[in-house]
Amino acid sequence: MSISNGFIGALHPCEPDPHSSLYRHFRSLARQASHLTRRRDHEGDRPHTRRLLVAITIATIALATAGPLFHSMPTAAAATSYRYDIYDSRGVRWQNPDYTACTAASTEMMLNMIAYRGVKSAGVNGTTFQWTPNVTYATQEQILVFERAHMTMLVTSAGTDPHGWRNALNYYGWGSLLADVYRDTTFTSFDAAAKWAVRSVGSFGKPVAILGWAGGHAQFITGYSVTGADPKTGSTAFTINGVYLTDPLASDGWRNMYVSYSTWRSGVWKIRFSSYDWRDSPYRDPIDGHIGKSEWYGHWVIVNAVR
After folding, report:
1. Closest CA to 242 of 254, 256, 258
2. Cα–Cα distance between 129 and 21 in angstroms, integer?
3. What is d(CA 129, CA 107) in angstroms, rounded to the nearest whole number?
């Protein structure tokens, strides 16, 4: 079998396919021509015989020269699908009874998934992964306190913002606010955000934080199903079929739930990934220099690994 320019041909490009219906038809006409020629020697030259011989002769010539035609339209290679998920049921907990701790519970679970996977990539400035898996409520509340002390959101608002969530992932995972393993990233479209989130999961083997409910609730994805290029290569030349999503809220009950791309894009509001609709982060972030409300509002926001 030969492969060229993304197409597969089963035969040499100058050979007709002996199994094709067109080839078999021409061969049949050629056999008739041979038979009629023998009859002509005995029966003489009849008009209808002459006409049939002309047609068969043309068909025979076409058969002799049709090799390149059979292969002038190569068959496209079938698209490849990839499915990948790093979810581990040992690392999950509900945020309840604290309904403001969705980001903290998600941080705890995301770091658990990384720890159980066993691939502990380093951050910058010599930082290394140091998280020990646990699912305690006390740890969740400790993370929430840290997030609120390192956010750019008004203290009158509940929970934390993407800066606080990013800071907790880096600090509790790699021991430093400057570890730069996770970053908050914004996009002008759902499609771009979804592709980058899937690419991050595949490339770095770490969960990606999703600002769900138009920025009002934390969710995260641990896997995906795609068709096209493999996200693990760093490519975005793929079509997303769906993602594996976890929500820390017990009433939703979504743990490693497969969500189709169309549902994630335009399903019910609790699961739909919508643009950020909050403007209560007026302070400049000391790490990336951005003001949250200017950076996120009207955009799709994720907190994703970069290494």
Report:
1. 258
2. 63
3. 14
